[in-house]
Structures are given as structure tokens and as C-alpha cells.
Amino acid sequence: MLLGAGVLVAAGAVGVTVAFWPVGSTGTDTGDDTGRDIASTGAARSSDVDADGGDNSASTASRAPSPAPSPARVYPLSKTPRTIPAVREHVPARGPGWRPVSTSRVVVTAGGLADEGKLLAGELRMTYGGTVAPRAGDVQLKLDPGQAAKGPESYTLTVKSGRVTVAAPAEAGVFYGTRTLKQEVAGGSTASEGVVRDRPAKAQRGLMLDIARKHFTAAWIEDRVRELGDLKFNELGLHFSDDQGFRIASDTHPEVVSGDHLTKAEVRRILALAASRHITVVPEIDSPGHLGAVLAAHPDLQLKNAQGTAARGAIDISEPGAAKIVDDLLGEYADLFPGASWHLGGDEYRALAVSNPAASYPQLAAAATAKYGSGADVSDLATGWLNDRAATVRAHNRTNLRAWNDGFYKSSSVQPGKDIQVAYWTGKEIGARQPTAYLSAGRKVVNYNDEYLYYVLGQPNTFVYPTGERIYKQWTPRVLRGSTAVSASYDGQILGGVFAVWCDLAGSQTQNQVAAGIRMPLRATVQKLWDPRAQPPLSWTDFKKLATRLG
């Protein structure tokens, strides 16, 4: 399109200067971010023919103006990328930015990045080039040990001179850099010129699924893994044993497995997909409570009170067979699930939910005295059970252990292992304590605040479905109980947070309804775990619009 023309008249000759820019351009950046500066100009030209039709080239040569210089395109400073979670630092620059074209490739500097490279290439419909030198239009993924001080999940993303470089000290950081790039170019958009320097504030960023009360298909769980990966979550918790069901196939105790369950082949497929997204799967067999499905096949191990009434879901920890069956299962699934993480459970043991545990369950009181001496009580026995189960999984190289906060008993003289993290979910249970009770004792805490991060199907008791807006506006990792944050001095002990889906009334929502219901809460949660500022960069309205655009 002709946008500008100048006419110069001089001594009988006519000189015309014409400048051309691509459609929609004015010589500056107007949003036409094709990734290439394709502005072109016409050359000035004077007539070589005089009024009488004669050759006038000799005379005009000395009088014609010099060709006009090509106008240099001036780009405004780039804008900060809009992603979920938001990047924490962006250094703007002037330039066209980047978007994939048919000749673009993803190349890597080390074969260990092949998985990240192939994934990104497939997502952006690019060619995977392997370990070759980058050229114009390419994306290069590289490991940079020099960035190690910023943490293994940190990365830099540089858009410059028509190419992209993602560099990080470890594969996880490279992967997160590719997630930022994927979001930037979503829907045909252009990645901003400049440098992103990014890293998470919290090391543990998770979603927990109660697949015990409600059977979720392997395909549905895999979809959540992909969603979590794109959002830079790094944990998926699977609570697969409870009163209502035991949902993963077992070789050691097949009698405890529910009809609807995941096969081990399906679990391995989930684990492989999670590993490709740098997500650790955290298994949980809750005990000594919430073992109803196991006890249905082993009623002789059910805890009974002095009147012979069975305590729902509770195993009798004074019985030697109780430890054996639980340890059998822990050992079996420790061999199935890789990694260092394990959730021990430990909550809501009904023997400690009565006013006088020793009178109600004298066999437990006797076992406590026999094991720990005079003065020991039922809470000591329960704490010893937790420590023994921790020892079982430690033997399988599990070093990142956690248990529910109400499994840490105030009155017990036996203390839980110092390495067991507190999964803080509630202050409402009998004997529950404020978060500062654990923090002041030096314990590490993971935030599961049930008033913000619990999505309980059917909304029983006082639960209501959490909203993304409330999490986005009110919650931070330091808000462990209620809506009041603990002192910033404890921030280093708060390892992260987990959004939990509990299926108390399993039939109240379908799988698809659960996925839709947790969509915005997940995005709000990871925003606050990545960057815990009370006021995020975007308003809630803009954040919702961004989530819609990114899909």
C-alpha cells in the first residue's frame, strides 16, 4: 500500500520520492508483529526524458536529488509478557519480537533437553532440530550452570534478533521457560522482545486428588497433568486409599482393591507423563485412620472400643497385624511411585477424637505403656505409629515426608520425626493448634488451608466451593489458617501450597464438572505460589480474561 509520496520539481525535471510500508504499518510498531521488519521503500527516480522526447539523462544526472534513505522502523519498548503465572521480571527491548514460522526449529545444546525440545516443537508446530547451531527464527534450549544460584526451577527467556533462547540451570527451569513461550505465542500472538528472568517463590506447588472416594479415569488424570504442567505446578498428590475405596491395583493385597480402580499400567503411564512435565506424584495411604476399604477385607484389624463398637475407618494399632498390612502396602507402592516424596496421612484417628481415649480404648492405652513406659498415652502410641510408617518409606529412599497437622499431637511425649513436614489444613479438629505452634518449633509447613484450598464435592458440613477470585485477592502462602497471615519471619519454613479436591459426596459432580470447577482456583493458586505478593500484577477481571485467552 502506498502511504507517502513526495514530489520534487527542479529546472524542468520532475523527481518523485515514494515510500512504501506494509499494510497496517506507519513506520513504527502498530501491533503488526509478524516477527520480521518487512518495511520496504520505493527509490527516488527522476525522468530521463525531456519535454521534447529527447534523452535528458546527462543533464538530469547533475540536477536530480539523491535517492531518499530507507526509513528505519522504530519499535516501541516491548511490553511485559502476560502469562499465568505472571513472570516476575522482564527487561524490555526494542524489536519485532518472535513468533514461529514454517522454517522455525527448536534446537538444544544437550541431548538431555530432547524431551523438552520435542514437546515444544510439537506444540508450536515447529521442527525439532536436535543439537545443532541455531539460526534466525529458531528457539534454542540450553543448560546454564551459571544460573544455579537462582534455583533449579529458575530460567531466562531471551527474545532478540529474531530468535529465542531459553536458558536454565536444570531441565525443570528450561521446561518452565518453554511454558512461558508457549503462552506468549498462544492464538498467534508474538513473544515480546527482551529478557524474562523468572523463578518460583515456593518450591512445592501442587494439586491433590481424592481418587479413593471417587474413581477418576486415567485419561482424566492425564489431562490434569498436562494442565498442571502448563501452569508450572510441580506436584500431583494422589490420595488413593480411604474408607470408601482403594483405587490402585495391588499385588500384595488384591483383596483390598475396589472394583473401579487404576491398573498399575495406567499409573505408570500417568507417572511417565508427569515426569515429562517435571511433576512429582505424591502418593498417600492415610493411616491409622481412613483405612475403611482395607478393613472391609480385614475386619479383625478394626479398632473397637470398650463396648465392642467399631470405630469407622480406624485400624487397631495395638494389633501386630495392623502394622504388617500397612507396611506391605507402603512397600509395594513405594516401588511403584518414583521420587523422594510421600504423604503419611495421620489425621482424624477416631481413638483420639473422644474425651477419654484410655477409657474408651483400653487396649491402646496398655500398648502405649508397654512400648513407651509409664505415663505414655494413646497419643504417644499414635505418634509412634506415624514414626514407624515414616521409617518404612524412608527405607525406600523417601526423604520428603509430610503428614496432616492434626496427626501431630500436643500432649504426646513421643514426637514425630523432625523431617516430617506439617500439611496444615485445619484448626477445627480436636487438639488442633495454630500454625505458629508448628512454625515456632522449627517445623516445615505445606499450606492446605481448608478455607481457601479445599474443593469438597457436595459442600458438606461448612465447606463451600472455593473461588479463584477469593484465592487471588485474599490468600497467600502465609495464610495458613483462616484469613490471617503468619509473620513474614516464618516465610522460609512455608514450603508451598496444595489445592485439594476431596470427594466426600462423590456423585455430586462428574469428572468434567470437577475439571471446570477447579479451573480458575488452580490458576489463582499457582499465581500466588509463584509470586506471593498480596496484589498480583493484573486485576482479577484482567486475569480472568487472560485465562480465557490462554485456554
Q: Can you tell me about this structure?
A:
- With 551 residues, this protein is an alpha/beta fold.
- The chain has three domains: 2-63, no CATH class; 90-198, Chitobiase, domain 2; 204-550, Glycosidases (TIM Barrel, Alpha-Beta Barrel).
- It has helices spanning 57-63, 114-123, 171-184, 218-230, 264-276, 292-297, 320-336, 357-360, 362-372, 378-394, 435-439, 468-474, 511-517, 519-530, 540-550, and strands at 2-10, 13-20, 45-46, 90-92, 105-108, 127-130, 139-143, 155-160, 163-168, 194-198, 204-210, 235-241, 280-287, 302-304, 310-315, 341-345, 400-404, 420-424, 445-447, 454-456, 494-502.
- The strands form four sheets. The protein has an eight-stranded parallel barrel with strand order 11-12-13-16-17-18-19-21, surrounded by four helices. Strands 4-10-8-9-7-5-6 form a seven-stranded mixed beta sheet, with helices on one face. The protein has a three-stranded antiparallel beta sheet with strand order 1-2-3, with no helix packed on it.
- Helix 4 packs parallel to helix 5, helix 7 (320-336) packs parallel to helix 10 and helix 12 (468-474) runs parallel beside helix 14 (519-530).
What's the number of helices?
Answer: 15
Low-confidence stretches: 1-63
Strand elements, count: 21
Instruction: Kindly report the average pLDDT value.
Output: 89
Q: What is the CATH first-level class name of the largest domain?
A: Alpha Beta
Which sheet architecture does the biggest sheet show?
Answer: 8 strands, parallel, barrel
Strand order in space, largest sheet: 11-12-13-16-17-18-19-21
Q: C-alpha Rg, in Å?
A: 31 Å
Gross morphology: elongated
User: How does the helix and strand content classify structurally?
Assistant: alpha/beta
Residue fraction in strands: 15-25%
**What's the helical proportion of residues?**
25-40%
What is the correct CATH architecture of the largest domain? Alpha-Beta Barrel
Q: Could you name the CATH homologous superfamily of the largest domain? A: Glycosidases
The CATH topology annotation of the largest domain reads as: TIM Barrel
Number of separate structural domains: 3
Oligomer: single chain
